[in-house]
Amino acid sequence: MGGDCLEERLDQRSGNLEAGVWENAEAAAEAVVPSSTWPSVVAAAGKEPVAAAVPSVWPAVAVSASTAAEDAASEPNASGQTASEQTASEQTASEQTAASAFARAAAEEAAKAEAVVEAEAAAETEVAAETGTVTETEAATETEAAEPEPSTDTAAAAFASAATAAADDPAAATAATAATASASARKTAAAPDLRDEQAFPSLGGPAAGRRNVAAWGARASPARSAQTTAVVDLALAQDPVADTVRQIMDATGTRIDVSHNRALGTSTYLVAGAPEQVERAKREVCARLSPRVTRVLHVPAAARAMVVGMRGRTLADIEKQTGTKVDVARAGGARAFDDEEQVAVTITGGAGGVAAAEALVEAAADKRTTRRTIRLDSLAADAAALLAADAGALAELQAAHPDVVLRLPAPGDADQTARVQGERPQAQAAALAVAAAAQRLLDGAEHVTVAVPPAQHRFVVGAAGATLRAIAAATGCVVRVPAAGSGGDGVRVCGPAGSVARAAAMVREAAASVAVAAVDVAAEHAGYARPQVYAQRVLAYLAARGRLARVEAEHGVRVHVLADAAVEVHGRTAAQAAAAAAAVRQMAASLPPWHFNGIDVEPHMLAALAGPDGAHFARLQAARSVLALPPPADAPRGTPAASLLVVYEGFNPAIDRIADAAARERATRALLRDTLEEFRATLAQVGAAQAVRTLHVPPPHQPALAAALPALEDAAAVAVRFGSLAEPAPASGRTMAKAPAAPPAADAVEVRGPEAAVARVAAELQRRADDAAARAFSADVAVPAAAAAHVLGRGRETLRRLQQTHDVQAVFGDGRVRLQGREPAVAAARAELEALVLRAADQTVETLHVPAAMHRALIGPGGRYVRRVEQKYAVHVQFPRSSSGGGDRDAEADAALGADEVRVAGGRRGVADACAELRELAAYEAEHGHTVRVAVPAASLRHIVGRQGATIAALRDESGARIDLPDAASDAAADALVDVTLVGTRAATKRARDALDALVAEHRDHVAVELHVPRRHHRFLIGAGGARVRELVSQAGGDPERLAGAGSCRVTFPRAAAADADDADTVKLAGDRRVVDLVRRRIEDLVAERERMVTVHVAVPAAQHAFVIGRGGARLKQLQDAHSVEIFFPRAAKGSAAAAAASDDVRIVGLPEHCEAAQKALLALVREVRRVAVPLHVHRMLGGRQSALWRRLRADLDVQPDVGHVDKAPASAAASAEPAPGAVVYRDAAADLAGLAAEWVLRGEPKQLDAAEALIAEHTAKAAASPPVEARVYVDPRHHRHIVGAKGANIARIRDDTGCSVDVPKKGSASQWVRVEGDRQAVERALEIIGELVDERA
C-alpha cells in the first residue's frame, strides 16, 4: 500500500542524515525541555535511548520553530524594539528564553537536513502518484503498521506533546505553543487564516511560501501542480474512523489514507487532491477526528473587552478561524487573584485549534495589557508548599525573576494553588522555573506519617493554620492533616530528610498540647428511645443554669458542645480533662430523661405563659421545682431546640419522699404533664381572645413579605402564616400545645395575635402586598438590533437612568426591554424608551476636528462635561482612546478615529446641537486654554504655594488663570528648575506669570539664618509676651505680623522643654534678607551687652519696697527705663532674722555704668522713717488716705504717711429698739476712746519730716481744744450707695466741705448706721448734706 512505500522512502531518507545533526539537536532540546523531564519525553516517544528516537523528528520541528523564531524576532514590542534587539540590549546569554535557544538550534539543523534531503526531491515527487492509486475502499480500511518508523511530522507532534506533558503545567503548554500559533497571530496583525500552516505546525501541511522538506509528499511535482498532498497527524483514534473518513472524502472529493502508530499514540491522515479540496478536507479531519480538548486560561478583567470585541466580533472571528468554541466569563463572575482581577476564557475544540485560539486570545488581551496571572494548577500542593517553606529557594527564584511576583500558598490557606504575576513572557518563564524548583524539592523530600487521633487534629492545625505555619517556618516541612469527617488519623509530614523527624516531633507536641476528653451525654441513659433529643435537652439546661461554666471554672478547662450534642472537654492535662468530663457525666446522670418534657409554643405566645416579667415561670419553679426554659430566639422552627422546655430540678418534697424509683419516675412524669396541661389551658384561653385576620396575597409576593416580617414593629407579638410557604412539621414525639390548624390557602396570609398588634401588622403587610401588586405591571418595548447601542447607551446607561427616574425595573434581552413597576411609571418609561427608539431611526454620525490637546478640557474631570453633552442632546461622543483613557470599545472603533478627531453619533438635530456646543467649547478652550510654562527654582515652590495653599489660591483668584504645579517637584533638587504650567487667557497667564516672577524674586531675597544665643538670654530677647522680638523687627524696618515676603522676619526660639537638646541655644531667623540682617546684628549686640552685664546688690529696707516700686510698679518701671537695667526685689520674708536681712537685698542687673547710676537713683528713693503716735479719736477724725491732712502732707511736704498700728476701739452699744430712718445718735468720741492711740508712719526727707510732725502736732492740739463729736445716723441700706456716690464722689465732697470723717457700712454689712466724726458744727453740716442726698433719692 501507499503507507508501505512512504515508510520505505522515509527509511532511506533517514539513513542519509548525518550523525552530527543529532548532537546539536540534543543540545537544542535541552533549551526547551529541562534535563529532569527528558526521560519522560523519551518514554512518551517510545524509544530508548534518546539518540535513537528523535533524529527523524528534528527537521520538521526545526522548520516550524525556525519560522516562529523569525516571526517573533521581527515583531516590534511595546517600546518599538524587535525581540532580537531587546534580547541583545537587555538579556545576557544565560537569560535568553528557551524558545529562542530552541529556534536558533532548530534553524541550523533544518538547513543541514534540507541539504541532505534535496537530493531526494525527485523521488519524493513520485510519492503523491503512488498514493493516488489507493481506492476508496482501501482508503477507508484502517491499516496498522506493526512497528513503522515514525514520520517526521508524527514524531514532531509526539515530541511536542510529550514535552508538554513532562512539564505538566499550563504555563509549559503555553510556552510550547508560543513559537507557533502566537507568532503567526502577531505576524498577521489581523485574524489568522486557518489555512496558514504556521498557525498549525503539528498538522504537517506545507507552510505558505516555505518548503517543508520533512512532510510526506508535501511538495508537489511541477508537472502535476493541480494535485497536492498533505499530512495530518492527530492523537490515536480510539473509535473506528472509517465512516467519518468516507464521509469527508465524499464531501471534498479527496483521497485519504489512514495509518496508526500505537507506539507513538498517533493517527496519520494522508490527504491528496486539489489544493482547495485538500485544505477543506484537512479542516474537516481536524474538526471531526481530532480529540476534543478543553483549555481554561485566565486573562485580566480589564482586557475582556478586547477579547470579546465590539458586539462580539473579535470572539466570533477567533471561533470561525480556529473551529473552536470560546466562552468568556462575565466580569461580574471574575476571580480575584491577589491584586489582579481575572476572567476565565474556556476554549473547547481540537488540539490544534485550541492552541491557535489560545494564542489569538492572548494576542487580543495583549492590546490592553501584557500582564498575566498564571495559576500552576497542575503543580502538586505539597511541592508548592515545600517551595513556600524554603526561604532560600524562594529568594533565589525571586532574584532570578525580579520582574514577576511569586504568590505561593501558606499553610492553612483554603487555596493551595501557586500563582505567578507579571508580564506574560517573564511570567511564563518564571512559572516553568517555579514548577521545576518545586518538583525538585518534592522529589528529594521524605514522607512520614504520624498517628494523631482525629479529635487532636485541630490542635495540629492551630488557629487559622498558625501551628502549620510555625512548623513550616521552623523545619521547612509541610504537614497535611486529613479532612474533617474522613475518619483518618494519619497526619502526613513531608520535607527535607534532616527536618522531617523534628517536624514530626512538633506535630506530636502540638497534638499533645491539649488533652481532650469526650462525653457522650446520651449514653448515660442508653435505654431512652430518643437519645439525641435527651442530650440536647440536658445540655440546654446545664448551659442555662451555668453548670457547664462552673465546671470550666472549677477544673480550668473548656467545655465545647458540638453540633451533634456531643461534648468535648479540653484541658492542659489528661487528668484535668478526665476529671471535668466525669463531672459532666455525673450531672447528666443525675438528670434522667423523665425530668424533661417540651411543648411547641408559637413565639408570640411565650409572653402569655411567662407572665409579667416572668412571674408565672418563677411561681412555677418555687411551687413545683419545675424550671421553664424558653427556646433561643435563633432556634430553627420545627426542631427540638425550638420548643419550650420544662425541667424537674429534683427539689419537690412531694416527689422526693417517694422511696420506690418507678413510682417516683411516674410522679415526675405526671408533674410535668400537669404543667404542660396548665400551659395548654392558658394558651387556649389566650388564643380564644386573639384576633385572626386573613389577607389575600398572591403567592409570588409572599416570600418578600416573609423576609420583611421580622423588621415590623409588632412582629414578635403576632403569628403570621403564609399559605404558599411550607411550615416545618414538629419533631416526632414532641408535645403540641394544640392540634395544628389547617394551613391557609395558597393565596392567603393569616395574622393571629392581640387585636391591636394584628391590626397594625396586617395593615402593613397589606400595604406592602398592594405595593408589590402595583409594581407587578409590565410592558415590553422592542429595540431593533441596529438601534440597540444608541437606545441602551454606553454600559446600558439608559436602563439605569430609567430605573432611577421612574422607579421601574428595566431588563434587556431577546431584542426587547422588559419594564416592570407601577403602571404610570411603566407608561412614562415606555414612552421615553419608544421615543429613543424613534430617534434612533434618525441616527447620524459627524466627526469634528479638534486638536488633541483640547480633548481633556472637553471631556472634563471624570468625564463630567462630555456626559452632560451626551445627556442633554441624547448623543454619543467618542474620543480617541488616548484622550478618554480607554473603555470597553473594540480596537477597530478606535482605529477609525484620528488623534485630532471627535465622533458624535445620535439623532440629526441632537448631533448638530452637540457639535455646535463642542465647537463653542473648543473655541472657548482655544481662547482660555493659552498655556505658558514658567521655569522656577524647585526651592521656591513652597513659597509659591504658601501656608496651606493660601498663596497659590490667592494667585489663582487674582489672575484668573489655572496654575498647575509639577507632580514630582518634591523629588527635585533645591537648585533645579521645574516647570509651572499656566492655563488661561493671554492676559490671565501674563498676570499669573508676573505674580510668579515677583514671588520667585521675593523668595530669592528670603534668607534663613541660625544664631548661637546662650539660653539664659532667650527670655530677655523675647520680652513680655514677645514684645521685645516685635520691637526688634519693627526697629529693623520690618512688619512683625508678616510671615513671608518683603519686610518679614520670623524669629524662632527653641521650646523650654528642649533645654537638654543639642539645638537648645539655636535661634532661627527667616524672612527678608535686609530685615533679617538688621535683626541679627541687633540680637548679637544685645547678647554682647548682656554678656558684659553685672549684678549689683543694694540694701533697701523691706518696709520701703512698696514705696520704691510705686503704685502698679510705675516708679520701678521709670527707674529701669531711665537707666536700661533690670531691678529685682525679693519676696517678703517671714521667719528668721537672716531671712529678714535677705529680704532687704535688691539686685540691679545691667551694664556696669548703668548699674552705678541706677543704684544712686534707687538709694535716692529711700526715705527716713519716723513714727508719730496720735490719739485714736484724732486718727479717726484726721487720718486716712483721703483725709485733708494726709493729702496736705503728701502734696506740700512730700511726706508719705501710712498707718503702723491702731488700738482696737470698744464695741458700741446696740440700740434698744429699731430706730426710725434719719435718727441721729451722738457720742463723745474723745471720752469713749480715751487712752487709745494710733501710730502714723512718716517717710520723707528729715527737714520735711520735721515740718510734718509740727503740722500733725498743730492739728492734734486743735482737736484737743475742740473735742470731736461722733454722730451715727440711721440710713436705709438702699440709700448707702447714694451717700457714697459714683466712684466715691459724694462722700469725698462731704469730707472736703466739712472736714469730718464719714464711714458708710460696706455692701452686704448688717449695720445700717452711717458714722460722722468731727467738731459739732462740722458734724451737723455733714448730717445735713447726708439728709439731702437721701431725700433726693427717696
What's the SSE blueprint?
Layout (H helix, E strand, L loop, with lengths): L1 H14 L3 H14 L5 H8 L4 H4 L4 H17 L8 H8 L7 H20 L3 H5 L1 H5 L4 H5 L2 E2 L7 H16 L2 H19 L39 E8 L6 H11 L2 E7 L4 E8 L1 H15 L3 E8 L3 H5 L4 H10 L2 E4 L6 E3 L2 E10 L1 H16 L4 E6 L4 H9 L1 H10 L4 E3 L10 E6 H20 L2 E6 L5 H5 L4 H10 L2 E3 L9 E6 L4 H13 L2 E5 L11 H14 L2 H9 L2 E4 L5 E5 L2 H16 L6 E5 L5 H5 L4 H10 L1 E4 L14 E5 L4 H4 L4 H28 L2 E6 L5 H7 L10 E4 L12 E2 L11 E6 L1 H20 L2 E6 L2 H8 L4 H10 L2 E5 L2 E6 L1 H18 L2 E7 L5 H5 L4 H10 L1 E4 L2 H4 L6 H5 L5 E7 H21 L1 E8 L3 H5 L4 H10 L2 E3 L12 E8 L1 H19 L1 E7 L5 H5 L4 H9 L13 E4 ...
Parallel strand pairs: 1-3, 18-23
Antiparallel strand pairs: 2-4, 3-4, 5-8, 6-8, 7-8, 9-11, 10-11, 12-14, 13-14, 15-17, 16-17, 18-20, 19-20, 21-24, 22-24, 25-27, 26-27, 28-30, 29-30, 31-33, 32-33, 34-36, 35-36, 37-39, 38-39, 40-43, 41-43, 42-44, 44-46, 45-46
